[in-house]
Amino acid sequence: MFKYMNKNFNEIRFGTALFISLIALFTLVGEYRARADESLIRIQAEVDKSIITIGDRIHYILTIEHAQNLFIQKPGPGANLGMFEIKDFTIHDPVEREGKIIQKFEYEISVFDTGRFVIPPFPVAFSESDTSRQYQIIQSEPLEIFVKSVLTAEDRDIKDIKPPQNIPINYKKWIQFIAFAVFIFAAIVFLYYWFRLRKKGLTIFGKEPIRPAHEIALEQLSLLKEKWREMLIKGEHKMLFTRLSEILKKYVENRFFIKALEETTSEIAHSLQEVNIDPDSRNNAVSILEFADLVKFAKYIPTEVEVEKQLSDLENFIEQTKLVFEEVEEKTETPISREDQSAVPTVETTNKLG
User: DSSP assignment, residue 157?
Assistant: First the structure.
């Protein structure tokens, strides 16, 4: 019996040791992968103070440490820092340390409201070389800032205002004069537009016809197609894709009654899943918005081929999801000829008087 118990105890001890060894092995593999990622690039965000009063300025410092052979899209002064307003922007000279490049980007920011605010994660795009188009994005950690009011408990007690002083001005006369001037100006403007509309055969109180969402979107997209090359040459790629995403969001809002202009890309993707739309078309719209976010926020510079593809994908999405109006055919009665009338049986009725 004791031999049997000793044998079971040895088996349990062996199994426990094997289980602990597997856990240690997975832990080492996870740490190795994490260290491998950190060996390429590391981003850190910090502030000089996390509790301020309203109107105070904060120094938000973004430190990027990366390998020498790694290419990064440097952050610019137009970064998205949530509710905070950027007052100043400074780029510090890069420093080489232990085979790594360390560079700091400092933002002087402020906010004019009280409460709890969050500086969102800062995205940074990087690739293996400056000629590679396969970008990856790394983000910093979000930071919480608490803003207090400058008023004390005593200052919050509202005191009575002083009574108005007597000013020897005839307000009634001035009000009548201003009202008469406004009336004359309004009458002149009304007559001017009335004559212009009358020449065009329109009425000033006519209602503007409601246009389909796809007509408006395609018209705006056509105007953008005429200007995108010029905008790309001038370096206005961020403005270009801001306009492109606005056309898509306005179309989605007018076509599917989704508040797309107030939603993020992920929220729009979730909203499109609730409407009757083809999955390929939905993925096409989300892909356009994600590429636009990469250009607007990650400082990605698109090529002409990529811009043409995004414009073409947007046009295809609108054409595939537009609301089609079918005309109703009116049914008309065909007149019966005399020959046909003779073929129609007639029913004679007689009234008997009795």
Answer: S
